[in-house]
Specification:
Blueprint: E1 14-18, H1 20-23, H2 25-34, E2 39-43, H3 47-57, E3 73-74, E4 82-88, H4 97-107, E5 108-119, H5 125-133, H6 146-155, E6 159-172, H7 175-185, H8 200-217, E7 223-235, H9 251-263
């Protein structure tokens, strides 16, 4: 996603990093370096995560990198102030992704843009197949296809959505290492997941079944899991005013409409 910034001509003066603890603090640093003169809001949706974000973003006063720069602000930005919303690996964990898209849209100023990534439906196909063969509920909820994300962006008020995807294969030395990685990536939000805690016997059976399937299919090779990563980019367009007998506009919408009218050239006769 960071590589795609080179194609964006707009240089944000203010941007939002949505839940960087999940998206990766290394990524936050890389984007901040790409826009060294821009100010930033960091948004975490729980109090404990806000504290962790503040600690992770803290730079000692004596470090040269802090001189002359405003530190990121941890908290929700005012509506319509951000030129870019950066959301790495967040949408597939949202209970109501359409509402989250609308929320990001409200944060953006007109002509601002959204950059996001999330997991796609081919993620964990090996593990899903294993659970299905054992008669267990799915190990994760279903992930949304990139074409559906494009439709949802338009419905949320964004314009010119651009969607892309790639498949990555991660390998692991053991079942224990594989599941440790998955615990760090998220949680199972499937509606039919097991409601209580699984026991050690169940865990041992899962590791055994994974090892057996791997030995039968790919002897001598490490355990592998597929991840489909979806990338999305979209703009917040000028507000459209529908002509009716009575039209109600907010003060901010009126300002944007008037500003756009001053920028548009007069029509030629």
């Amino acid at each position: 996603m960071q590589e795609r910034l080179q194609w964006i001509r707009l240089q944000p003066r203010k941007w939002v990093d949505w839940e960087p603890l999940s998206g990766g603090m290394q990524t936050h640093v890389a984007v901040a370096q790409a826009y060294p003169d821009a100010s930033c809001w960091v948004v975490e949706t729980s109090g404990s995560r806000q504290q962790r974000a503040e600690q992770a973003l803290h730079t000692p006063w004596w470090q040269v990198g802090r001189w002359g720069k405003s530190p990121p602000r941890v908290g929700m930005p005012p509506d319509g102030r951000a030129d870019m919303v950066w959301a790495n690996m967040a949408l597939h964990m949202a209970a109501d992704p359409a509402a989250l898209l609308r929320r990001w849209g409200r944060m953006l100023a007109t002509d601002g843009f959204l950059m996001f990534s999330c997991l796609g439906p081919d993620t964990l196909i090996e593990l899903r197949d294993l659970y299905r063969s054992l008669g267990w509920p799915a190990p994760a909820h279903e992930f949304t296809d990139m074409h559906d994300w494009g439709d949802m962006l338009v419905q949320a008020g964004f314009a010119e959505p651009v969607m892309d995807m790639e498949r990555l294969t991660l390998t692991f030395a053991s079942p224990g290492r594989l599941f440790a990685e998955l615990r760090g990536l998220g949680r199972n939000l499937h509606g039919q997941r097991f409601a209580a805690l699984r026991g050690r016997a169940w865990q041992a059976r899962l590791h055994e079944a994974l090892a057996e399937r791997h030995a039968a299919s790919q002897s001598g090779k490490p355990l592998a899991l597929t991840f489909e990563v979806i990338y999305g980019h979209a703009l917040k367009p000028q507000p459209r005013v529908s002509v009716q007998r009575e039209t109600v506009l907010s003060l901010d919408e009126m300002r944007q409409v008037l500003h756009q009218g001053r920028r548009d050239p007069p029509a030629k006769p």
